[in-house]
Design brief:
Strand order of the largest sheet: 1-12-11-6-7
Number of strands: 24
Distance between the termini: 105 Å
CATH superfamily of the largest domain: PPM-type phosphatase domain
CATH topology of the largest domain: Phosphatase 2c, domain 1
Largest sheet: 5 strands, antiparallel
Structural class: alpha+beta
Number of domains: 3
Length: about 575
């Protein structure tokens, strides 16, 4: 069995007794890697009767859904992508109605769409068009009609695209199996055919999908359907098999490169020198012999040549680097030539790690720390906008160039939200970083959120100011939520209490208690938050008892010396 999602489909529409067909429908099946990362899209829409531009509304909603979805980042979840797309479409329809008539909704349509990705169908719905799933001998309606019944002769839609500026969209996920039939209908069909009739048409194995679509329409017309009629059927003919050997063979198409030495040339890159060696990878400075550009070549360690999880992680790291365009994230190059081995090419930067910088600058001024942390935050925000969580933020994974520009590196532990929707033989998001910088929620099995990266950023800020870590470590790692925070003043670091208050908030054990977004933390590092100002007026005895008594002892010692000198003078 192929490890690829595949479908068969048919669709048919008829204006029926109406003068104009205001229904619209469509299906898109990508023929590239987006089949895995984005999936298959299908949608149906019914322009609301009485709206002057119903046809334009239905066509715009389906076309926008099918086109715009594939323009969203591959790293986003289906729900994030479609929610943004449909909200944009809804706002456009609403504004079009405003332009033509402030009292009548001209651009209004029902909308029902699905993204089939990996082994799941993601359903988005507004209005009274429908989706059914026929599995085995069971017919199930997967959507609910947003229709309010006033009487036998009077009803109206309670929800549709274009009615309000802000729209609520029903969303649900259902599993898909080989042989499933997904049927989409507008009300010109399902208002005139009961479930028994629909089921009878779908279970007829002697007819094709196309014939089934036409039969649904013809029987509805025979039952005096008075509306436009559209039917669309998608049959799941294959679903990805996470245990399939094809998954392994796809990952291992390229062999690991041999050990590289100065002067070796690999696919047009000449090795200049070795800059890093570990048990997991090797990094070299190289020069592109075609354009003399310096680059860094990262190769996988032969220790993991048969480790499918490692190979997948190595490939994902390159995939991530190619999709982020930000001054504070290391840039990964597209391959200019066909590769004969597995390796990555990244930009070359004359730099040092933040760890080395910290060793060289054990007591940096607050302004320098603010600048560094703000740059790291900008890199994190670039990841977060793509629904990626770094999950291994630490001084070794941050570099600073000769001009003071900071960049985040190493994407081996990054969580890609969109990847969680793709079935694989293993957990692609099992790595959770380094214990000293790890947010406590990871230890309870969480895959982390943006607030988990915020926690790590708070640890970095604390360490930059004090050259120490912010917690007394518990005896067991699973006690991370009970770690005791060490005030900065105990390290003889004198900073305003409002700055420490901001740092301490990022380090709270419960993610919901931290800042909503990282930008709020960055703001509070430079602007005195009134919630923390009062803490500055606590007496030293409360803030740091040890230091208070040391000062008292020192004062008494000096006083005694002075008194002794005065007595001896007499």
């Amino acid at each position: 069995m192929t490890a690829k999602l595949d479908i068969a489909s048919a669709q048919h529409t008829d204006k029926g007794k109406k003068e104009e067909n205001q229904d619209f429908h469509g299906i898109v099946v990508p023929d590239n890697e987006q089949l895995e990362t984005k999936g298959i899209a299908a949608a149906i829409a019914d322009g609301v009767s009485g709206s002057a531009a119903g046809r334009e509304a239905s066509e715009s909603s389906v076309s926008g859904f099918l086109n715009d979805y594939y323009s969203t980042p591959d790293s986003w979840t289906v729900k994030t992508s479609i929610t943004k797309v449909l909200n944009s479409i809804n706002r456009w329809l609403y504004r079009q109605s405003e332009k033509t008539n402030y009292t009548q909704y001209d651009h209004v349509t029902t909308f029902t769409g699905t993204i089939f990705k990996s082994t799941t169908a993601h359903i988005f719905h507004s209005g009274d068009s429908r989706i059914y799933r026929y599995r085995g001998d069971d017919l199930e309606q997967l959507t609910r009609d947003h229709r309010i019944i006033v009487s036998e002769t009077e009803n109206y839609l309670s929800r549709a695209l274009g009615i309000e500026l802000h729209i609520e969209i029903d969303y649900r996920q259902v599993s898909i199996q080989r042989g499933d039939l997904f049927l989409y209908t507008t009300d010109g069909i399902h208002d005139f055919l009961d479930d028994k009739s629909i089921k009878s048409i779908l279970q007829d194995t002697s007819t094709s999908l196309n014939e089934k679509c036409k039969t649904l329409i013809s029987q509805s017309l025979d039952n005096n359907s008075s509306d436009n009629l559209t039917s669309q059927i998608i049959e799941i003919t294959s679903v990805p098999n996470p245990n399939d050997e094809e998954f392994y063979s796809r990952l291992t198409k390229l062999p690991f490169p041999p050990d590289l030495a100065i002067g070796n040339i690999i696919d047009g890159y000449k090795i200049l020198r070795d800059i890093h060696q570990s048990k997991r990878s090797q990094c070299y400075i190289a020069i592109d012999t075609e354009n003399d550009e310096k680059v860094v070549i990262k190769t996988p360690s032969v220790n993991y040549e048969d480790d499918i999880e490692y190979i997948n992680s190595f490939l994902r790291e390159e995939w991530i680097g190619k999709r982020i365009n930000n001054a504070h994230v290391l840039r990964t190059h597209e391959h200019a030539r066909k590769r004969t081995f597995l390796y990555q090419v990244t930009e070359f930067i004359d730099c040092k790690t933040l760890r080395i910088w910290m060793n060289d600058n054990p007591h940096p001024p607050i302004d320098a720390v603010r600048d560094l942390i703000e740059q790291v935050a900008k890199g994190l925000q670039a990841l977060h906008r793509l629904e990626m969580i770094h999950r291994d933020l630490k001084p070794e994974n941050i570099i600073i160039d000769q001009y003071g520009v900071v960049k985040i590196i190493d994407f081996g532990s990054v969580k890609i939200s969109g990847d969680t929707e793709i079935a694989t033989p293993f957990d692609q998001n099992s790595l959770v970083g380094t214990i000293d910088y790890t947010a406590p929620e990871y230890l309870s099995g969480s895959q982390g959120t943006e607030k988990s990266d915020q926690f790590s950023l708070g640890v970095l800020t604390y360490e930059l100011l004090s050259a120490k870590l912010p917690f007394k470590h518990p005896a067991a790692e699973r006690s991370l939520r009970r770690r005791k925070y060490i005030p900065l003043i105990e390290h003889d670091v004198e900073i305003p209490a409002w700055i420490e208050g901001a740092i301490k908030r990022t380090l709270l054990p419960e993610p919901n208690d931290r800042y909503n977004v990282i930008s709020e933390f960055i703001y509070d590092l430079s602007h005195a938050n009134k919630n923390y100002i009062d803490k500055e007026f606590k007496p030293l005895l409360e803030r740091n008892p040890l230091k208070f008594w040391k000062l008292i002892a020192g004062f008494l010692f000096v006083s005694n010396i002075i008194l002794l000198i005065m007595l001896m003078g007499k």
